[in-house]
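INPUT
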Amino acid sequence: MTSDYLLLSIFLAIAVVFPLVPLAMAWTFARLLSPAKPGKDKQSSYECGIESTGPAQVQFQSHYYLYALVFLIFDVETVFLMPFAAAFLKLPISAFFALMVFVLLLVEGLVWAWAKGILAWK
Amino acid sequence: MTNILFSLAPESILTITALLVLGLGVSVPNSRSLITSAALLGGLIAAAAILLFPMDANLLHGMVVINPLARIFKLVILGLSLVSVVFASESFPKNHFAESLALILFSTIGMMVLVGTEDLLMIFLALELTSIPLYILAAFDKESSGSAEAGLKYFLIGSVSSAFLLYGLSLIYGVTGSTNLLTISQLSGSPDSLLIAGIVLTLAGFGFKIAAVPFQIWAPDVYAGAPTAAAALIASGSKVAGIFILARILTTGLGHWAGAAGWGQFEPGWAPVLALMAAASIVLGNVTALVQSNVKRLLAYSAIAHGGYLLLGLCSANRESLTAVLFYVVIYALTTAGAFGVVAIVEKQRGGSRLEDFDGLSKSSPVLALCLLVFFISLAGIPPLAGFFGKFYLFTSALANGQHLWLVIVAIAMNAVSLYYYLIVLKHAFVLPAPDDIRPANAPASKILVAALALAVLALGLAPDLLLKPISVAGKTPPHIATSTVPPNDQ
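OUTPUT
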């Protein structure tokens, strides 16, 4: 028991020291050797995609949220249909009916959303 | 498989009805009466299925348990939900009307599953199935900011309380190694700290659900802001289901760890926690109700106080007090559903539910005022109405083991206080003169239903045995005998 925790604490100590050493070395070399000359190119984020434009907090239509919900119907359906399809030949007939009920429930959700006009972009 | 289908027939019928109502909502959206009658018909068929084919069952290791007591409460819940369907049919906004009825039915399915299970996981799932439609219903009136506020508050506090409850139940499962209440009850010995934490968290979760102090903060805003038919369901049906399952968890599952809540002789367990919550609810609910100017908020504080009376009954944890609690919660639900019905009609006539909106109700609509009198006098607990006998049985059964005298003294003193604010409403209705600008309310079905509920409250006051005897007989069957249709080797 005690030796387990001893091993863990050694592990923790190494885990802390290991990243700190190169960081300290990099900082020391930078202070000793490199002159401080910041510039536009040096400050830019290197290889992180194109420069961003405009504010980050733009407004977008909350309508997307309804699409995401309706998409979930298909998403969940696929997740359950895949294992069913894989084991289809070994399953009894009742499993088929159970799954049909499940699919019909999801279809009613979709039909309801459609009839309510949720799929029409406003 | 077929057993499951037959035991869950009422719930399945309600599910099909709710889906049918949704379908009607998109095919004939303007026919309110057709949609309402479809929902009512489905509910009546489900009730007939319970009445005509009574069967006892214990399936999937206690996940689905049907016994006489569960059947009685499924019927009660079904009845209360049909009452709020009728209120909704005459007061809900025109937009998305079918969806509102479907949500009431979905919530009812959750409550019915809730009273028919002895498994912690199913209890949690059914509670969520009950709560989520209620969150939406509370926010259903899109043109009222009060309704949006009610929905948001109910949703946020409700989901936090579900997290408490789930954590508590998972600790109980972790300590006992089972989610089945009967298996949990077979363990005994002194509770360890983990189990106590689990019990306290579970009680906190249920405290939120039934609005007991100190978890009551959501109730007044939700009762006042939600559409009145939704508030009626939150106050009646979900309260019945919540108290029923709390009683089942505490007495069936955790009966060994009750502890004691006598004055000066506390022993650790759930009873002292419950006793403190009960005393605080009774005092705070009744005293705060005194200063309310809106009848719906007043009913909310009265609901907090009545939640306290019910917890008081649960503290004793013997069979008589359990019967008394279950009897009282049904009486309370019928009365409060009726009171909300009166409020819904008055809102239609006068456009609000402030105390002044009840001025001169006895002149403008005498029958409605009489029903209001019956409901409020029953809530205050004056004979010969049902509320009196409910409180009488509750207090005598709490006194039976001699420990809870202090709680009963608090309850009776505060009950005297409660008379004041119920009578204030009645003074507005019977003594003060009526204003001139009263619109005629076109709500015939609600009026008939309110009158029927008032008659039921009167009848149960004159002959309490009508309800007390079935509950008492059904409750006498010990759970392990009532649910013994599964052979022992099935475990």
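end of record. Residues 2-43 of chain A form one domain.
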